[in-house]
Amino acid sequence: xxxxxxxxxxxxxxxxxxxxxxxxxxxxxxxxxxxxxxxxxxxxxxxxxxxxxxxxxxxxxxxxxxxxxxxxxxxxxxxxxxxxxxx
Length: 87
Hints:
Layout: H1 3-9, H2 13-33, H3 36-52, H4 57-81
Helix pairs in contact: 3-4
């Protein structure tokens, strides 16, 4: 980038920085959303909560169903990509 174009686009630097931060946050969120080990850990926590009697069975069933749906979605996406990786 030349000196003139650098000076002209300088006022946009905060916008570019904000966009970069937002993109990094989105990548991190997607990484966590599609992490099978995190889902398995969540399922284990639900089993422990069920054993401890901390929550209503209906609440636990709903949370478990949501995690299983995420896991199935991850596997469906992995099969569709052909290389076993999501993202």
